[in-house]
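step 4 of 6: structure.
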Amino acid sequence: MSRPSSSSAGPSTPTRALSTSAPAQQSTGKKWLTRAPSVYNKLPGTLFLGSERLVWKQDGVPQPAVNVRLDKASAIFNSKEGALPVRLKVAFTDNEKGYQFAFAAPEAEEALQQRAEFVGLLTPIINRNKSLASPAPGTPAPSTPGERAATPMAGPMIGQENILRRSVLLAHPDLAQLHKDLVISGQLSEAEFWHGRESLLSSERAAAGQKRGRASQLVDPKPQTGEGGDIRIVITPQLVHDIFEEFPVVARAYSENVPNEMNESSFWARYFQSALFNQNRASTRSSAPQHTVKPDLIFDAYLEPEDDASSPRQILSESVDRLLDLAATEEDHEETGNEKDVTMQPGRERGILPLIRRFNVHSERLLQQALGEGPPGKRRRLEGGEEARFDPNDYYEEIVIDDLIDHHASTGVQLDLLNASLFSTTTTRAPDAPLRTAEESAALLSSFRSQTHGYLSALHSLKPSRKAAEAAFQGMTSAVRAQHAAHRSLPPIPPEFFRQMTTCQTAANEFLRQFWGAVLPPPPPPPPIYAGAGAGAAGDRIGLSGRERAAKAQKMAGYLARTGEKVDALVKAAEGEGVDPERVRAAFGPLMSAVDKALKLYGQRRKKA
Amino acid sequence: MKFNIDGLPIVFPYDRIYPEQYSYMCDLKKTLDAQGHGVLEMPSGTGKTVSLLSLIVSYQQHSAHPRKLIYCSRTVPEIEKALSELQRLIKYRISQAETPEERTKEESFMGLGLTSRKNLCLHPDVSKEKKGKVVDARCRDLTNSAVCEKGRANPGSVPLCDWHEKLGEKEPGNLIPPGVYTLAEVLQYGRDEGVCPYFTIRRMMPFVDVIIYSFHYLLDPKVAEQVSKEFSKDAIVVFDEAHNIDNVCLESLSIDLTRPMLDSAARSVVKLTEKIEEIKETDASKLQDEYAKLVEGLQEANNDVPDEDAFSANPVLPDDLLKEAVPGNIRKAEHFVAFLKRFVEYLKTRMRVLHVVAETPLSFLQHLKDITYIERRPLRFCAERLQSLVRTLELSKIDEHSALQKVASFATLVATYEKGFLLILEPFETETATVPNPIFHFTCLDPSLAIKPVFERFSSVVITSGTISPLDMYPKMLQFTPVIQESYPMTLTRNCFLPLVITRGSDQVAVSSRFEVRNDPAVVRNFGSILVEYSKIVPDGIVAFFPSYLYMESIVAAWNDMGILNEVWKNKLIFVETPDANETSIALENYRRVCAPALRGVCLAHGMQACNNGRGAVMLSVARGKVSEGIDFDHNYGRAVIMFGVPYQYTQSRILRARLEYLRDAYRIRESEFLAFDAMRTAAQCVGRVLRGKTDWGLMVFADKRYARADKRAKLPRWMNQYITETASNLSTDMAIVLSKLFMRQISQNPNENQTGISLWTLEHIERRQAAEREAAEQMQVDDRGSFEPVNDAVPTLDDDDEFAASWDKFRDDELVDVPM
């Protein structure tokens, strides 16, 4: 998921991460669709709009403070007509607060014009996003494979891959730094860098593939009390859409009465004062006296009786899964016993039942919009007639305990021994011959017995001398003390030099990783959890042939061979920085031994080849 | 796998076995061998049903004279699951059979389940009826022997049920091919063959090896008399999910009468009178025959009543009563009706009282006698006498007379039992109500009364559940002596569930559902924030339970008004239990669709847009409610269960108070002890529904400060309590969230670590364990000390190292010398 960076991002790492992605962006040869001087967070700057991104740069600062992708833009808001300054707010699905810009053109006219231009360009983008995010009202979203063509998945594989990589880098500043040091400087190719990091990409892909859908809150416009005590409800097109969807009866009222009986604004004004609105509110507040409503001839015709009886007004003809059928239990035997006490009688609070029912219906509707009707085969339903035969295997998934079934263990990874013949024992012995003959075993046993004979009595008489114990403790204590003191007295390493050391270390580590990745046998294919997750699953697996692997190993060995020089250079430079060179050398000790090991193995392999 | 327990060959339909399953089977076998009763508690989700069935079926198939198994469960879904388990077991046994004879034996094994006509009816009109009572009555009208006789003699004269008629064509005892059938399969069979599933099962009951039905069919004497009287004494009776058995017992002997009921009963009396007049004119001999039979005694009168004719039996079962002659003053039909009329009138007058009355049956009878001269003896025969009359008059649409039947049952019960019952008249529904709506409660206080005939009649009765702690409570309440009473700990290689006790919100205000504070805004908000926080971090399904419907409904409204639910909507869909069972089932189904694992796979694969529904859902329901019984929330369907408050019963209830008093006086169970026991078993039952198998995982959140007290927690099942750490027993919301996150991060790691040998046994482990036991037993005989205890607790793990450990035992303490340091 790309992380929109806000201007408030204080630490230096994210900005650096952004700068790494900036060149890649410019290299795609993108031109700005429009631009305008504007104020963001009280700072003057310029707002740029590209076909994919919205960027704002502060004047005199090369890095953009706002740089966001537009495919998550969800809404734009204008400041009121005539109000100054002229503002534009862009909201995103993953950032509902969004960004607010004020157009800084000296003339209000010009600012308005600029804003109109932005709005004109942004609107189609947002409409497109919306149509992708939520299906058209009224029609459930069918999950046909054809629809996948409309999603960004089907875009050019490489572009898709780049976007993924970029967002991974944005999310991991350390990785971005390494990427900058190695790839942008040309030491490693892009593909090499990502080799072995496929899991990051695949999880990123999974996250990107999961688009956010409709918010699932209940539609419940809350009136706000204005200054003069007047009550107002702000109506947006989105709200109208939601209301129509949630309450078909309002949509019906609208289509039957507007514009013949009344115009749109009076429709809404009357609706929000009607008993119908009060019935539709997700609240039990309506019983409060201040919400007494005026009778309204038109709207009251659409009122439905409250659904507050203990069985729902709507008769549910659907039969349910037999393993969830609560009614079957109620009807399993005649009701017996005393009445339940007051607290255990469901539905006593009548005012709340309609609300509870609305929760269930709302959830069901959201579910159906997302999934369409459930696959009929999955539902263990008891249907009349011949068409649906009952399959007993359906119950098994509910009752079988998986742990108790012996799933055969995996075959394991075969060891790749350096000198396999040395360790091979199978060839010298017939495969089914016992490991030892009986005599050998007996001899072994008796020798073991004689060795351990008297072992216990010796243990009883073990009496370590007091002096020895004290000496040992003293030795240990003094060693710890000395180490502690030495550690404390060390002067700090200057930050700049320390950074150089870290860079050297991480780069060498990366080379080592690449080297071993090329030398060791390739890992088994990943579990197929995400295999079907994205169309680009094959794109990130860089299948290297043997020759390529050899070439890569050679290249990496070359880099590694030069690590020594770099370390030496650092050790030398240490003196200039006022750091003890031995300390630096010691710090690189483990790294150097790892490098030596790698080089030694590489040397052996070369000799063998 | 196949193995032996003390020479009994067991076939277990899995490759591995949990250690607790093995121990459970051993103890169950001991119970059966001893022909005694047992109380066994085994952790939820560790395959109790399959162990039980596996052992008992092995027991049956091995013995020369198989004992029938009567397996009782609580709900229809549970019955259906148990049938399916049995079916799977028999399939496995068939596949594992070694000789053709064995194979035939397995193939001829029969197992059926029984439920009401309502759930099994195929008749196109009758099955459409909403109420079970109406289905029963209409079915009876189409199938009773008198109607059938008429219909067969003169086809078309009276409507008959084709499905029932077709059954008569089949050979009795061979109505359905041998095998195990789930309820759905019997229905399907009925549809295919055009026969009635209900009567297929009823008539096959004497021939089956296993019958599975609900508690009521054995405990409710009205039903048991019809359904279960033919089972032989040596049958094995199992009550599964029996943590509520005492309540079922009480319910089956308690009756409520209301004013509308009495009015309806009075109308029935009038109708009966008219009918008697009519019969007198047309067919007087019928009534005389009945009279003659009643002189002989009820048993004669009721003998040879086919199943189709029986409609409601006597609520009590004393045999001597049935042999006695019916008292003279109610032998004549018109006298009996007049007698009923007087009794109903008396009850109506009692209802006019505007203050609460509580009295014993004896005092009620005395008052009745003083006012109406109705004696106790004829009253006892009321229910049976009414049944006989209805049969004689060939009444149809019995459901219209159900109120009168209730009155008759009431009369019989009140005249039969002197102790263990109380009559409470409540003129007002609530304390504050002003309009009287009187209810006459006839309430049973002693759970042992209903189950007594079962314990007396059957030699082995096993009571088992995932949560029946403390175990000794049940023998005390139900008045029986178990030969085995055992609770098994859960062996785990990793803690697959995390119980947490939240005692206060992040603002340090204590949370509690105690009556005085439960509606305090701070408490409501803190409860709400628990739900909000968990909805943010828990994947898939969350189930929340409330102590009562009243509280759930008020808190849902409060949360909605406070905007708390809006926060939850952001993360999860919300479903709520409603009063209507069908509506709730649909909500549950949708809930499970949201949480289904397959669904999320689809979302990912198709890159679907509106995938906010991959987030899962919250199900709000009530402890002791419909959802808490018999619905499992395992795997994705419940990653966290939140128990808001302690589910105490409503202590203001007069019935509960009377019951508590009785328990104190009769069985020395203190009120507070019983209340806490009852609340904790309910809570444990609710949270225990999250697990199935040991690779499943779930959070169990107890949100109430009272759970922090050790005496409360001690009443939780041992397997649950053993995993509540000291730190986790007193948390604030934020601390609990931190622990939960940590737990989920750990548990989401690869579960394929090796459990084998510790929490999962192969055949080898069983054999090793048995060898160790034998050795221990031998040593016991050799050793005079007798202090050697067989390794029993904590189900030890035996591998090669342990044999070494055993030899350490031989060293005496005094031989060891201190090591100076």
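step 5 of 6: annotate
 - Chain A has a mean pLDDT of 73.
 - Residues 216-312+348-371 of chain A form one domain.
step 6 of 6: archive
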